[in-house]
Write a structure and sequence with these properties.
By secondary structure, the protein is of the alpha+beta class. It has helices at about 5-15, 70-75, 80-105, 130-135, 195-200, 210-220, 235-245, 260-270, 295-304; strands spanning about 20, 30-35, 45-50, 55-60, 65, 120, 140, 155-160, 165-170, 180, 205-210, 225, 245-250, 280-285. The strands form 3 sheets. A 5-stranded antiparallel beta sheet has the order 1-2-3-4-5, covered by helices on one side. Helix 6 (about 210-220) packs parallel to helix 9 (about 295-304). The longest helix is centred in the N-terminal third of the chain and has 25 residues, at about 80-105.
């Protein structure tokens, strides 16, 4: 598997300049190196540089670079050679975007709900009010109500989009593992959850959180939010197109742990650079919005 078209050029540059870096592993398309910001005394590699297009970003200070910011000086390249590098980097960015477009043509899977299920009409669940539970279609799956035994005795969170059921997941009512279980075949890169709440009107500021319970907890606190379905980049073209019309700005607010904070910074960078949502301002709020000692938004809600 390729290490990226600019991997060798970058490695040579770092060695010549005495910049500490971590070479890519097979299948990776990035190199971690010491930040190139002259104002940042970076003792450990905290800048990630994409070896396919040369774009770099420091996860500590936010400093950004592009390939031709530094590579021409190292190799004493002519203007024509530098332009060729820039053209190759741009081509790779476009190819990456085209890969996202291909996702939209996957054959959709048909999901159905059990014929009988129990709604949360007058009962709250883990601090979430009956009103929000009802609007988002949350229901209780008892033993006899779901054909798949793995989804029995779970609180179910169906994913509706434009009136169509596009998937669901369930949270256990006991100590079984896994705590959360998602239906097979759900394309979360195209799912906006909870679509029913966001589609009511234009949302000036929308928070992005890891899970469905975090998401509904923020709605309960008065903050519109969507579920990212984990911490990885999870945005296909249709999803980005819809968000660009429904939202003014995005605020990444992942869990208050090391993984959540690190991945939150990466997501901010990727969404901020995506041409399909260039009209949306994306920011990352870090730890300060989460109450000290509380890991996620549902814990925060229940601590109030």
């Amino acid at each position: 598997m390729s290490l990226g078209v600019f991997h060798d050029i970058l490695s040579e540059y770092f060695q010549k300049e005495g910049i500490k870096f971590i070479p890519s592993s097979v299948g990776e398309n990035f190199i971690m190196c010491q930040c190139m910001n002259p104002q940042h005394n970076d003792k450990n590699p905290s800048m990630s540089i994409n070896t396919d297009n040369g774009d770099g970003y420091c996860f500590t200070c936010g400093y950004e670079v592009t390939l031709t910011d530094f590579i021409g000086e190292c190799h004493e390249l002519s203007n024509g050679a530098i332009e060729a590098l820039e053209l190759k980097a741009t081509k790779n960015r476009i190819e990456s975007l085209n890969e996202d477009y291909e996702e939209d043509y996957q054959e959709p899977i048909k999901f159905t709900l059990p014929k009988v299920f129990r709604k949360f009409n007058n009962t709250s669940y883990r601090g979430i009010s009956p009103e929000i539970l009802t609007k988002t279609g949350v229901y209780l799956s008892a033993n006899e109500y779901h054909e798949n035994k793995d989804f029995r005795y779970r609180v179910m969170f169906p994913y509706y989009q434009q009136g169509k059921l596009v998937g669901y997941e369930g949270r256990v009512l006991d100590n079984r593992k896994p705590k959360y279980l998602r239906a097979a075949g759900v394309d979360t890169k195209q799912v906006i959850y909870p679509y029913a709440l966001i589609a009511e009107k234009f949302v000036p500021t929308l928070f992005v959180v890891e899970g469905v319970m975090d998401c509904l907890s923020l709605w309960e606190l008065g903050y519109p939010a969507i579920c990212n379905f984990g911490t990885e980049y999870n945005y296909g073209v249709n999803k980005l197109d819809m968000l660009s019309e429904m939202v003014g700005s995005l605020v990444v607010a992942f869990d208050n742990d090391e993984a959540g904070q690190r991945k939150g910074k990466i997501l901010e960078k990727k969404l901020g650079n995506n041409m399909l949502v260039k009209n949306i301002n994306t920011t990352y709020i870090g730890r300060q919005f989460v109450k000290s000692g509380v890991n996620d938004w549902n814990d925060f809600l229940n601590s109030q």
